[in-house]
Amino acid sequence: MKTLKTLRSKFAAFTLIELLVVISIIAVLASLALPAVTGALTKGQITQTTSNYRQLYVLTQAASLDSQQGGGPGAFPGDLGGSGTSWSNALTSNNAYCSSNTFANLYNVKGSNANTLYWNVTSSSEPNSVFLTVKGITGTSNSLSYDGTGPYLAKGGAVVTVGGSAISFISSNSAVLTNGSATGGTNTTGSSSF
Hints:
Layout: H1 2-12, H2 16-69, H3 84-92, H4 100-107, E1 116-118, E2 130-134, E3 137-139, E4 144-146, E5 156-161, E6 166-170
Antiparallel strand pairs: 1-2, 2-5, 3-4, 5-6
């Protein structure tokens, strides 16, 4: 009986050194994993933003087609005088395509509408003309660049074109903005104000 008690006490206790070594190993592993986890979270947020912009494109395209069939102007910002207020009203008036809250949720990035830029494009703009981007995208009709000042800083951003192409980019693949898959709209600068 004494032997069993002695064995239990030997295996049940850890020394302070052993506990400190285990805790330090866990801390090192956690510090190695943290950048990967935050990078994955940011990529997920960028993908969500791209999806939200694509939904706004679908709503705008539907409103534009309905308007053209009824003989009115399209529903892209350029069709409505380049006004963000007119564009949002075209989509949210009487909850025709979405509610004001839904529009705000889709348009705002990280809780602010200043992080999204709409471009002054029309329904007849070239399909690769930019419609929606995160803040920090600049350029002309020939090329776009990202200056890293957007809501995700140098980690990346999102672009949706008039043709409906949705592009998520991270800092290592921002060349996608200049290889012809997305170009600036008729405006050389976007706007976020309504």
